[in-house]
Amino acid sequence: MAALAKEPVVKNDVESTTSYFKHSIYQKLAANVAKDAVEEAITKKLDVKFLLSTSNNTIRLADLGCAVGPNTFTSLQSLIDTIKNKCQCPDFSSMPEFQVYFNDQPSNDFNTLFTSLPVQKEYYAGGVPGSFHGRIFPSNYLHVVQCNYALHWLSNLPEELEDNNSPAWSKGKIHYANAPDEVLKVYARQWAKDFNDFLNARAKEIVPGGLLIVVMPSIPDGMPYSELANGILYNCFSSVLLDMAKRVT
Amino acid sequence: MAALAKEPVVKNDVESTTSYFKHSIYQKLAANVAKDAVEEAITKKLDVKFLLSTSNNTIRLADLGCAVGPNTFTSLQSLIDTIKNKCQCPDFSSMPEFQVYFNDQPSNDFNTLFTSLPVQKEYYAGGVPGSFHGRIFPSNYLHVVQCNYALHWLSNLPEELEDNNSPAWSKGKIHYANAPDEVLKVYARQWAKDFNDFLNARAKEIVPGGLLIVVMPSIPDGMPYSELANGILYNCFSSVLLDMAKRVT
What domains are defined for chain A? Predict the structure, then answer.
């Protein structure tokens, strides 16, 4: 489990060679792995007719931690296609309307997101700025919520990691690979609290019978954190950052 | 009635000395003029208890053509305060939740809007990118919709105005003050079509018993367009623009 405090996302134009829009293939692959399981859950478990009976014939979906696209567009369209397939049986007199919410931190580049929306989209789109660790929607409101490759971000950096008098001082590192147990525990405690807050908020926002889809990185039981590819990468980053910091002091 | 095709709004940071955020006092004054009438309409005509009975205790408001603030925040908060006042009588067992949508063209600076949202807001905020001349919300969805000082923008520039073979050619002008009748008619026809589209879309999106508030510039009957302050201003602009264009050709 990677666990780093999320910094405000910088504005990155679709056309920029360094943009997330062009460099999110890893996240796309992760979402694709879960695609079959998600389709099966919608097909077998989501009672669309029941949901529509109390929502004025509208299905409301949200992508939490959506960034700027294009993955958010393709994965949400895939959810809509699966729901529409279910609505083609004679039980349904008309196709429902779809309302789709794109959520991320207020500092996310919503301008890029909104100007990249598919031209022929089959839904009413909205952006919702705010942390998914708290409430961002009214009660009993959403039908299908996905959170793809985003729930590993922490709501904030635990203070102990930056306090050089604490046994959990992380000594300039930005990841817990090869870190002492105290550091690991502080990261784990923060993530557990954040995940609890996330679930409590969704429990209020999602209607009874709704669906919550979480796709996130994980590691096999027993694998040491020092072997994490992400950990090796971030430890390398932190060396580079420390070198850069030394040059300007 | 001013009537110009709306160009994409350029990004304008809150801190910039030329930003709309700092230069929208005229629009604020216009909205304030209508404040008493709006409060009276909500107090006397809006059946909040009836609206809540079919909306899961949530009141949904939208500001169409909201730009980047701060006027949109103050005017929407004022609507919410008036509705909350109505809910303090014993008829209401609990205060409703509020959902507020900020709408403007996809090219609007939603990044500035979202990062300027009031910290202590009492509502769930969302941004909706899209032209208010078409559908942007599901059917029977919104309870109170305002459109302050925005409905004078046209959906697009009628082709005849730019066609030098047409009697309605507007000869490099960007406003209809002092223009021939043919030009006036083309502007008027486009605005009538746009207003019709606006009303048809809202008729589907607003619930029965909902409220539509439109604040817009107008002129007294019989006043010649040549005396319009806006017209004089825009004719001056067009001279400046033509001079600039001549220098680069």
Answer: 20-155+198-217 (3.40.50.150)
Q: What is the pLDDT of residue A20?
A: 65
Whether A135 sits inside 8 A of B127 (CB atoms) is no
Write the ipTM. Answer: 0.86
3-state secondary structure chain A: CCCEECCCCCCCCCCCCCCHHHCCHHHHHHHHHHHHHHHHHHHHHCCHHHHHHCCCCEEEEEEECCCCCCHHHHHHHHHHHHHHHHCCCCCCCCCCEEEEEEEECCCCCHHHHHHCCCCCCCCEEEEEECCCCCCCCCCCCEEEEEEECCCCEECCCCHHHHCCCCCCCCCCCCCCCCCCHHHHHHHHHHHHHHHHHHHHHHHHHEEEEEEEEEECCCCCCCCCHHHCHHHHHHHHHHHHHHHHHHHHC
Closest CA of chain B from A106, distance in Å: 6
Does residue A6 surpass a pLDDT of 80? no
A11: chain B residues, CB-CB within 8 Å: 111
Assess contact for A38 and A61: CB atoms under 8 A: no
User: What's residue A31's pLDDT?
Assistant: 65
Q: What is the pTM of this model?
A: 0.88
Residues in contact with A149: Cβ distance below 8 Å, sequence separation at least 6, in sequence order? A27, A30, A31, A65, A215, A216, A217
Q: How far, in Å, CA of A176 to CA of A186, rounded? A: 10
